[in-house]
From TrEMBL:
Gene3D superfamilies: 3.40.50.360
Keyword line: Cytoplasm, FAD, Flavoprotein, Metal-binding, Oxidoreductase, Phosphoprotein, Zinc
Keyword Zinc assigned: yes
Enzyme's top EC category: oxidoreductase
Residue ranges of coiled coil: none
Name this protein carries in UniProt: Ribosyldihydronicotinamide dehydrogenase [quinone]
Gene Ontology molecular function: dihydronicotinamide riboside quinone reductase activity; metal ion binding; NAD(P)H dehydrogenase (quinone) activity
Subcellular localization: Cytoplasm
Domain named Flavodoxin-like fold: residues: 4-194
Record SUPFAM superfamilies: Flavoproteins
Recorded name of the encoding gene: LOC117533609
One of the record's GO cellular component terms: cytosol
């Protein structure tokens, strides 16, 4: 792990929170192992969450019909994105591993963190039509979610009222991280820390500290490679790939399930 660059994108308002403790533990352990760790503390930075024309310095190409993706691509190419976006893109370019640390809000990331994703992961910089998913721009980088829930683990099960956490994670881990090419490490989920005794919270943090000892050596979650899909036929799974899995009990992934049972823990554990 020595000399690796780590970026922690952190979203919590309170330095006394469990999320803050998890972030601090990551900084401490990874720094001790020789990593260079940068933290983007989004609330402390008052990071702008809205993707608007103000993210571009100077004139835009088409003010009457403003298209954020196309305009920010041109601005990125011309070096005309605002300083806050450019600085986060610098951090991301240098990082070998990105950890998103946050409390789950409404089954996803807080708005300020979604704004970071919307504004920093711009077209051209983070993805193109040709470079995405397994052939994505960040295919040599690793990323992961580390978050707290308000609900206990049983509520996020296949039989629980919130539904399967693997399904909840698919849009974030496949639709954002893997879409940009990241090798996605299994998430670190802290189940309902506000509803357990302080001793249990301490145990949660110790488990996280132990995991970080070998974090960068972990295998990523499994996603279906881009070349398994036919780009000339609407990016449908190629018939030969479909046939290879026809007799199998489970689908390929949570999203590409082929009408079969979802592969257990597909978005929560590597190697399944």
């Amino acid at each position: 792990m020595a000399s690796k660059q780590v970026l922690i994108v952190y979203a919590h308002q309170s330095s006394g929170s469990f999320n803050s403790a998890a972030k601090d533990a990551a900084v401490e352990v990874l720094t001790a192992k020789g990593c260079t760790v940068e933290v983007s503390d989004l609330y402390a930075m008052t990071f702008k969450a809205t993707a608007t024309a103000e993210d571009i310095t100077g004139k835009v190409k088409n003010a009457d019909h403003f298209c954020y993706g196309e305009e920010t691509k041109l601005a990125w190419e011309a070096g005309k994105l605002t300083a806050d976006i450019s600085e986060e893109q610098r951090k991301l370019t240098e990082a070998d591993l990105v950890i998103f640390q946050f409390p789950m809000y409404w089954f996803t990331v807080p708005a300020i963190m979604k704004g970071w994703m919307d504004r920093v992961l711009t077209l051209g910089f983070a993805f193109t039509h040709e470079k995405r998913y397994s052939q994505g721009i960040f295919k040599d980088k690793k990323a992961m979610l580390s978050f707290t829930t308000g609900s206990q683990e049983s509520m996020f099960s296949a039989n629980g009222i919130n539904g399967d956490m693997n399904v909840t994670l698919w849009p974030l881990q496949n639709g954002i991280l893997h879409y940009c090419g990241f090798q996605v490490l299994a998430p670190q989920i802290f189940w309902a820390p506000s509803h357990v005794p302080s001793e249990a919270r301490g145990t949660m943090l110790e488990v996280w500290r132990t995991r970080m000892q070998g974090l960068l050596g972990e295998n990523p979650l499994a996603f279906t490679p881009l070349d398994c899909f036919d780009g000339e036929k609407g990016y449908q799974l190629k018939p030969e790939v479909h046939e290879q899995h026809a007799a199998k009990e489970f689908g390929l992934t949570v999203g590409i399930h082929l009408g079969k049972a979802l592969p257990p823990n597909n978005q929560m554990k590597a190697g399944v």
